[in-house]
Design a protein that fits this description.
73 residues; 434 Repressor (Amino-terminal Domain)
């Protein structure tokens, strides 16, 4: 999952970076670097962050639809 997606999900949940970092078991400064895309997450970090940023299914679907590229008609 890309860093922008994490930022959008965090905002949708009304969480601070500190909240996500605590839930994921990493430092706030590490999460900040990851969210800004300045470093790549280790697999276990990515899984923990994804778990911390779980959204209700209907919101997750809406975000997925919003991220799809527009197709020309």
């Amino acid at each position: 999952m890309c860093a922008l997606h994490w930022r959008v999900r965090r905002a949708a949940l009304g969480l601070r970076q500190r909240d996500v970092a605590d839930k994921a078991g990493i430092s706030q400064s590490r999460y900040s670097l990851l969210e800004r895309g300045e470093t790549d997450p280790r697999d276990e970090e990515a899984r923990a962050i994804d778990q911390a940023l779980q959204l209700p299914a209907e919101i997750d679907r809406a975000l997925g639809e919003a991220e799809k590229p527009l197709t020309s008609q």
